[in-house]
Structure formats: C-alpha cells, structure tokens
Amino acid sequence: MATTAQKICCRLSKSSVTFRFQSLLRPEARNSKCHKYLQSRQINSSAAVYGTIKLDMPSLSPTMEQGNLVKWHKKEGDTISAGDVLCEIETDKAVISMDTEEEGILAKVIIPDNTKNVKVGTLIALMVEEGDDWKNVEIPAEAATPAAAAQPPPPPAHAPATPTAASSVGGAAAHSGADLAGDGHLVGPSVKKLLQEYHIRASSVSPSGPGGALLKGDVLNYISANKLDKKVQVAPSPAAPKAASKPSPAAAPAPPGGPSAGGNYVDIPLTNMRRVIAKRLTESKMTIPHAYATIDSNIGAIAELRNTLKADGIKVSVNDFIIKASALALQRVPRINAIWQNETLKLSPSVDISVAVATPTGLITPIVFGASYLSVDQIGNTVKELAGKAKEGKLQPHEYQGGSFSISNLGMFGISDFTAVINPPQVAIMAVGTGRPVASMSGPLTKMKVTLSYNSSAISDLEATRFLEEFRHAIEHPQTMLAGTNLDSAAEAFAF
After folding, report:
1. 470 vs 62, 122, 170, 325, CA distance in Å?
2. What is the pLDDT of residue 484?
3. Against a cut of 0.85, is the pTM above it?
4. Where is this region: Disordered (predicted)?
5. How many folded domains does the chain comprise?
6. Are residues 317 and 432 in the same domain?
C-alpha cells in the first residue's frame, strides 16, 4: 500500500470513516485489489473531516531539551507552502528559523510568541490541508496542558481595598477553581482566560465544538448576549501591622554603602545558551581528565608578512594564521584531530576547527570546515561570515554542530594567557593569548603564548607536545602557510 500511494489521510469520527488520496495512484495500481477495496468501503459523511498536521517543538541541536518560541512569521489562516518559515525558535545555541515541508493552512497556534522553556516535542501549532475548515479545527486534548502552562494568567491589578471590594473578592473566589476551569469540559487557554476574566461558569455556556468542547466563540457569544463586563480582581488589604516595638540593642544598623532591603536591583534572566554552556562546562570538568601544555611562539614574522600582503591589497588577521597553523599541525599529529566517544578515540577524516565567538547571549563555536585545504584569506572570509551570523543569531545547526578541534582566542582583548575547558566530544582545545614584546640578545621580539587543554585519557603528553611544536613551527614560518595558494607570489616576495 505504501508503494501505491504517497499518503493516505484517515480520520475516524463516531461511526463514519472517510478515506482521501492526496496524490494520484500510479496507473498500474488503479485496478489493484487495494484500490477497489477502498472504493467499495468509502462512506460519505456530512461532518467536516480534516487531515490535521501537528507541528511539535523540534530538537534543533543535540543538547536541546527545551527552547523559547520567539516569534511567529505566519498567523492563523495563512497558506503554508513547503519551505516557508513558520517561526523563530531560540535554542541553546542560537535563534533559528523553523520551516516545514508540509503544505496547507496554519489552523491554530497553540504556543504564542515570546513563550519561554517549551519542551522538545510539545505541540506548538496545527495545520490542515487546503480546502478544510481551518477555523473549526479540533484541538487535541494533550495540547491544553502545555498551552496553559505556557500562558500563565496575568497578575491581578492592585486597587484600594474597600469593604464592598473585599466582598466582591470573596464572591469571585467562590467562582474560581473547578467552576471556572471548565467543569470537566475541554477548554483551551484562551477560553479559560475569558472564563476567569468575566467570572463565568463553564457550565453556563453551551459548547458547540467537536466532542462537547467549549470554544472561544461560544464564550464571546455568551458575553455579548449577556452584556458582561470584565471583573476587576482586587487584592485584599493587608492587616494593619502591630505597633513597632523598641529596637533591640543587639540590632546593628546596616553598614553604609551596603545593599538595603529596598535596593533597586536589575534582574537579568538566564538565557538558554548560558544555561547549557554552564551545564556542559561542568560536565566536561567533572568527567574529562584535563591536562595542560603551554608554548611560546615568535609571531614577528607574521606581522611582517601581513604588511607585505596589505601592500598588495590582501587583508588577513593574526587569528587567520593561527587557524591555518593549527590545521597544519592537526594534519601532522592526527590523534589531536579526533573525538572521544564510548571510551574510544575516533580520528576525524577532515580538519574541522570550531572557533569560539562571543555573542550577546553567550559563547558559540561556528566551524571552519576543511581548514587545512583553505588558504589564509579564505579562512579569514569564512570566519568573518560565521562571526557575523553568530552575533545576529542566524547560524544554522550544521554551521556549529560537530568540529574536531577548538580554538579560543582572547588575545585581541589583551589577555596574556588562560586555559580553556574542553568541548566534548572533542579531545582538545587551544587557548590563545595576546602578543607581547620580549627583549632578547638579537633585539626585541613579539611572543605569543598558547595553552593546549587535552583529554589525558585519549592523548599522551608526547602527542600534545608534538602538536605544539608543529604549531610553533608553522607560526614562526608563515610563508609555508601560503605555499600552493593564490597568495603564493606574496609568499615568495616575502621569502626573498
């Protein structure tokens, strides 16, 4: 059956069954027993039948457990084509546009804009096929709980409490709880909100939805027919405090300049990205035996070569040379270019370097794929493009998932040296410090310190040392990084 039709939508509604083909059968299948059986069993129903398509919160990264639904680009009733962007979702790495391969009409948005901490797999919207009645789409029962949790009721307005207001609050309390929650009826979050705002019993409104579900239109019609107004919820006034007793001699005044009980503080919510970064760094330090090795390199030759390239209109940064030198060193010491998985070291077939980029929401590591085969200026262009997309939150998952080695460079911020935490399942990360002047017998030098953090379960001290030696050799002889590229002529001019 799967070979004769691309898709069959089926919906059981009470005692009726309706089958509908979305695509034509192939000619050889039109006279098949399956086709004749479906024709003989087709039953027409006057009830509306929908091929409902559920849209769930996707998992957009390996570490994603929940996400924030930032914004919907489509609204209810809009026609959806394959490839259309439906909404923006903030993951633990970036803000990603969610599209769909389905076609139809967006019938119901279950999770609204700016909803935080929506778990992966939660129903966020419903689609129906073109021609179906999208306004009366049936909302699944399981959608009520996530939506209600995602939309907490607004806080009550504070107003001066009077005896009359207090009595109205007491009366409102009598209509709360189960009376306003639906009396056993299936209600959505918008319906529940209306019932609470107008203090209406669900049992007072006649439901018209499928299976006795109470719809928002039913409540609005009831409000209009009875000319109801919103009920202002008034908070009861607190009891008058007892007369203040004399201060205890042991009580000492707060020190000057310290925070007071009524101090004005600014709450900054923790982003998904920072939460996941903290979790992964903690796991890394607790589960990976970190070892460290540091080496100094003379980067004076890079400064001279950059000036030569600049005169030819070619702009490259020190960071571009660092990435290229790391790629060459990884080729020569392949055990560093690997991942650690299931207590096994797995060598990577290509040199894919993750470069740490700071964004307003946290640190992310876009990947320069095949860095060993790229020229220095190609690496520079790639890093600029990825860094720009990272800061705008437009990185796609394939641009930051994976990688075989990481580089974190704080040299441009004046940090002389530091150690970085390994990004699992990678086995090593290199921390790069700033260039600093050093006096020597042959004259002033510019030295740069790098520290390799590596998994001592997977990498020996000898292998870590060999990698750093290969890196230093490439950095101190930058013309070797230009050989065989479109910058080769500049390299020859520099060498001679």
Report:
1. 33, 50, 78, 8
2. 52
3. no
4. 145-176, 233-265
5. 3
6. yes
